[in-house]
Amino acid sequence: TTTIGGVPPPPVAMTVSGGLPRGSASSADGPGLRSASAGVVTSFDLFPFDQFGNKRDQPGGAWSLVFFLETGSGIAKTVTQITPLLFNFAWDTTRKAYVASYSVETAGTLVVGG
Q: How many other CB atoms sit within 10 Å of the CB of residue 110?
C-alpha cells in the first residue's frame, strides 16, 4: 500500500477508452453494401473497432471511403473512381456507428473501399 506522509492517497477516477479505429478491424453492414439503384439514396453502417478488437463508442480517427464503378466485362471491363451525387458520413450516437448514405447516377457494379 502506498502512503503519502502515512496517509493513503485519495482514489483517482479515470476514463479508459479504446485506441484509434483501424479499418481492417472494423466492420460494415447494410443495404448500400449489397445493392444500389442509380439516382436512389441508400446507406450502410460502419462499426469501428481498434487494433485490439475493442468496439469504439465514440467517433474518432480519419476515415476515407472510395467508390469505384465497374462497367462491362472481360476485356471491355472498365473500373472508374467516381464521386457519388450525394454522400453523407455521420456518427450515430445511439448505435455507436457511422452511417454512410450515398446516391450514384450511373448503373454498373459499385465497389466501396477505404
A: 20
Burial, 114: exposed, middle or buried (Cβ in 10 Å; 0-12, 13-18, 19+)?
exposed
- CA-CA distance, 103 to 36, in Å (whole number)? 8
Ranges of residues in the chain with a pLDDT under 50 are none
Query: What's the whole-model pTM score?
Result: 0.69
